[in-house]
Amino acid sequence: EIDRLGRELQAHGCRGVIGVGGGKTLDTAKAVAHYQQLPVVLIPTIASTDAPTSALSVIYTEQGEFAEYLIYPRNPDMVVM
Prior knowledge:
Elements: H1 2-12, E1 17-21, H2 23-36, E2 40-44, E3 56-60, E4 66-71, E5 78-79
Parallel strand pairs: 1-2, 2-5
Antiparallel strand pairs: 3-4
């Protein structure tokens, strides 16, 4: 999904990423922004932890199993609560 969304971003000439949703959605938005070297704004729909503000994504396989952690050099550009 990260690769697919990255291709969509490039095809449409996007200049940033906005992620709206829960943990997997926001982690995906962070990863896409990181790989495309674009700013990311996150809008969590559940504010139960500080995960949206972290410089980390948990990546899962297509089967929903844990694959890896991605650790970024910086936190998201903005988190809107």
